[in-house]
Amino acid sequence: MKTSPRCPICDSNFEALTKYKVSKFRIYFCGRCQIGFTYPRPPNLAGYYPGSYWGSPSFLGRLRGLIYSFFQFRRVRWLRKSIKGGKILDVGAGEANFGKSLAGQYQVSSIDAPFAKLANKKVLKIDFLSWRSRRKFDAVVFWESLEHTPEPEKYIRKAFSLLRKRGLMMVEYPRFDCLERKIFGKFWYHFDVPRHLVHFTDWGLRELMASNNLKIIDQRTVFAWEYTVGGLCASMSNFLGLPVLDFVRGRSWGLILALPLLILSMLIAPVSFIMGQSPIGLVIAKKVGDGES
Question: Going from the N-terminus, what domains does the chain have, and what CATH number goes with each?
Answer without folding.
Answer: 17-287 (3.40.50.150)
